[in-house]
């Protein structure tokens, strides 16, 4: 039985471990780790010094013209003839709207036009034949009375010359004759006026009222034309806002039509514009279609100071302005849709 220190290892035996061997092994492990770290650091420094930075990726997206379909007629949607995602042709019927209020206004406008037309016809027809005939009879009576008064005056004048009647009687006969002549002239004027009918100004006013009433009918008719809305061009219906039976206000959008004129839009710094101008060709890649193609630039515009790229250095650098460019493929690209990513190549 061993009565010595339990921590003292025996000089010989199967469980004996050489402390110096353990220490040498630890030193070797540490040295190996240090060497690996030095090699990795050296590789990182070499890569940083000799590796060239690749070009920046300029990413844009597809875009297209969108048309909001709306009308002048406020009313209730009675029928929607298309669905979202449906292809349509120019002139296809899209939606029907009904407005009882506007239709009532049309009835009112037509009634006013009828009344104005009747008044105008009455003015154009002139005075009624019965009134003309009555004026003629009065005129003839005045002519007869004037004739009798003249004969009486002539007789009195002859008798006055013979000294048979007094001057007073002759003057009374003359006054009666003058009065009869004035009555004849007045009756003739009334007869001529009855034959001529309405005055020129009255006819012009009646015709103007007809035009005003007809304009009211045309105005309401122009609104009612939007009872049926049609597609202004070929495209696809992307959004439909109301449902059938819902009310829509004047000018409210009912649906959105997207034309088949897809293009790409990029926001780029001004330092890459030296080779890009309107009409120039650019090479792009559409990742979603795994396709590379050429497009023609048709639009370049400065986005303003709010989109400037700020300089990273206080000296030797400058703020770069951002420009928006749009490019259109020479031929339509199948399945190319607005919103798809487009990568600008070669810059």
Compact overview of the structure:
The protein has 347 residues and is an alpha+beta fold. It is 42% helix and 22% strand. Among the domains are: 106-222; 262-345, no CATH class.
What is the topological layout?
Elements (H helix, E strand, L loop, with lengths): L18 H32 L7 E6 L2 E4 L5 E6 L6 E2 L4 E6 L1 H26 L3 H33 L5 H30 L3 H25 L3 E3 L4 E6 L6 E2 L6 E4 L4 E7 L11 E6 L4 E12 L19 E8 L11 E5 L2
Antiparallel strand pairs: 1-10, 1-14, 2-9, 3-5, 3-8, 4-7, 5-6, 7-9, 10-13, 11-12, 11-14, 12-13
Write a structural description:
The protein has 347 residues and is an alpha+beta fold. The chain has helices at 19-50, 100-125, 129-161, 167-196, 200-224, and strands at residues 58-63, 66-69, 75-80, 87-88, 93-98, 228-230, 235-240, 247-248, 255-258, 263-269, 281-286, 291-302, 322-329, 341-345. Among the domains are: 106-222; 262-345, no CATH class. 42% of the residues lie in helices and 22% in strands. Helix 3 (129-161) packs antiparallel against helix 4 (167-196). Mean pLDDT is 81; it is low at 1-13.
